């Protein structure tokens, strides 16, 4: 029979009491404990339970009641009496037991984990809470909240476009783009207003491509009566969103059997959303986007649903009046068979778990990159990473804070200490600590004033 050392651990503590204090009552309690242990080893669990509980009747055993309750619970679990086993295990944790990891491993409780998994998990959670409290009481400095960016930081390999050039100022001011997106609603509400504005500049003509593919040039041609294809809708939205500080890129879509020619695909954009913390696809020609269970999707998410036989779960949502997007869904969802994302002529294809890339697009590109790294095609943007460094001498009066970011068009960091005012900060600063709770928050801001999602760390400093 397997020996369960933890079930008998309290006896080791008790032997120290015997050595220090020889008394009749303690000796009697020790005899009962020995009797219980012997019965346990023989598998005589009812007799072991009786002896454990009788030992507990001695006043000197009060400090050992948590261990006794644990052993009694083990015996009842091995007998298959779940109610009593759980009741005594409750009492064990109530007495301060905190070794939650052993609770999950002890073979005596296999019956409880299998038959009463949820209740057992609740007991384990309470034991874990005891352990966390012990750590808090015995540690000088501990992290109690941690919402920090943990992903890749290098975004230097992408061409995000230069929004500091004069053309961006002209575009933003000539067409009053800040008024177009407005101040009301969520970030996605503002994006939808910009999408609608671009989508209604002209009537689509799939046979024509603008001679110059910049937003200003295309809008000038439109003012003279020009009508252009889906790619030029995407070009204009890219320029307008960049002028407002939003990272955005062209996305090419193609059906499975489309020819590799001008009419074989469809041009859209993907824009980074701070609100949803991911890339989302905007179909500018159709003034629309794709959703699943109410959440906007990116091209790859649409691709996975479509090629995975879940095309019916895709919802095509749009803003053109008198358009039945539900009827259009089967037609346009077929374009998600092949996808590629671009940054200024640099194509990125995401290789899935097959020997050949599943994401490709029309013509050949010298700068095409095929990768199996999802984060390379869909980098997480506008985040800030906080790194904390302590003094080599162990001084806990302050910490050195180092900030890094994944924000295109970066301008500055903002830092807030203990919920006070946000302040501009350098990439390295000193954080003075006080006794008790200490909170630091940091976020990046780009040159257009767009703020990224804050990172947050909360430390507890004990006296």
Describe this protein's structure.
The longest helix is centred in the N-terminal third of the chain and has 22 residues, at 117-138. Strands 2, 3, 4, 5, 6, 7, 8, 9 and 10 form a 9-stranded mixed β-sheet that branches. A 5-stranded antiparallel β-sheet has the order 1-17-16-13-14, with no helix packed on it. Strands 11-12-15 form a 3-stranded antiparallel β-sheet, with no helix packed on it. Helix content is 38%, strand content 22%. It is of the alpha+beta class and 463 residues long. The chain has 3 domains: 6-138, Serine Threonine Protein Phosphatase 5, Tetratricopeptide repeat, CATH 1.25.40; 143-152 and 381-461, Sandwich (Immunoglobulin-like); 166-377, C8orf32 fold (Roll), CATH 3.10.620.
- Using only C-alpha atoms, the radius of gyration works out to 33 Å
Largest sheet: 9 strands, mixed
Give me the CATH fold name of the largest domain. C8orf32 fold
From the spread of the alpha carbons, the general shape counts as elongated
Report the CATH architecture of the largest domain: Roll
Separation of termini? 48 Å
Q: How many structurally independent domains?
A: 3
Tally of DSSP helical segments: 16
E-strand count:
17
Q: Assess the beta-strand content as a share of residues.
A: 15-25%
DSSP helix fraction: 25-40%
Query: Can you tell me the CATH class of the largest domain?
Result: Alpha Beta
Average the pLDDT over all residues and give the rounded result: 84
Give the helix/strand class: alpha+beta
Catalogue the unreliable spans. Answer: 1-22, 259-263, 353-365
């Amino acid at each position: 029979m397997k020996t369960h050392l933890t079930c008998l651990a309290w006896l080791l503590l008790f032997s120290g009491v015997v050595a220090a204090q020889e008394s009749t009552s303690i000796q009697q309690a020790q005899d009962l404990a020995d009797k219980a242990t012997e019965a346990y080893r023989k598998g005589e669990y009812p007799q072991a339970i009786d002896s454990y509980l009788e030992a507990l009747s001695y006043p000197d055993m009060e400090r050992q009641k948590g261990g006794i309750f644990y052993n009694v619970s083990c015996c009842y679990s091995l007998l298959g009496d779940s109610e009593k086993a759980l009741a005594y295990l409750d009492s064990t944790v109530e007495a301060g037991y905190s070794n939650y990891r052993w609770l999950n491993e002890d073979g005596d409780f296999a019956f409880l984990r299998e038959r009463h998994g949820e209740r057992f998990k609740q007991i384990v959670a309470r034991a874990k809470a005891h352990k966390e409290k012990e750590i808090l009481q015995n540690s000088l400095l501990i992290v109690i909240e941690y919402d920090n960016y943990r992903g890749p930081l290098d975004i230097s390999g992408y061409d995000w476009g230069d929004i500091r050039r004069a053309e961006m100022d002209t575009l933003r001011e000539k067409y009053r783009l800040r008024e177009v997106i407005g101040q009301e609603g969520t970030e996605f509400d503002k994006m939808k207003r910009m999408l609608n504005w671009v989508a209604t500049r002209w009537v689509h003509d799939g046979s024509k491509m603008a001679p110059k593919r910049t937003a200003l040039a295309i809008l000038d041609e439109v003012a003279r009566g020009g009508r252009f294809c889906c790619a030029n809708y995407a070009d204009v939205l890219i320029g307008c969103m960049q002028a407002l500080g939003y990272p955005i890129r062209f996305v090419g879509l193609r059906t499975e059997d489309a020819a590799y020619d001008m009419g074989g695909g469809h041009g859209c954009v993907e824009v980074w959303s701070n609100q949803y913390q991911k890339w989302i696809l905007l179909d500018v020609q159709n003034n629309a986007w794709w959703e699943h269970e109410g959440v906007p999707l990116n091209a790859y998410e649409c691709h996975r649903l479509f090629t995975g036989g879940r095309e019916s779960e895709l919802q095509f949502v749009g803003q053109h009046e008198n358009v039945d997007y539900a009827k259009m869904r089967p037609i346009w969802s077929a374009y998600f068979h092949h996808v590629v994302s671009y940054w200024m002529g640099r194509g990125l294809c995401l290789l899935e778990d097959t020997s050949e890339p599943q994401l490709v697009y029309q013509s050949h590109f010298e700068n095409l990159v095929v990768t199996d790294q999802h984060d390379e095609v869909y980098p997480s943007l506008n985040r800030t990473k906080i790194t904390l460094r302590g003094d080599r001498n162990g001084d806990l009066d302050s910490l050195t804070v180092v900030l890094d970011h994944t924000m295109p068009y970066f301008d500055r960091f903002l830092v807030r200490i203990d919920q006070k005012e946000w302040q501009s900060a350098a990439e390295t600063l000193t954080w003075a600590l006080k006794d008790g709770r200490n909170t630091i928050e940091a976020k990046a801001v780009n040159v257009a004033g767009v703020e990224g999602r804050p990172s947050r760390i909360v430390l507890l400093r004990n006296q």
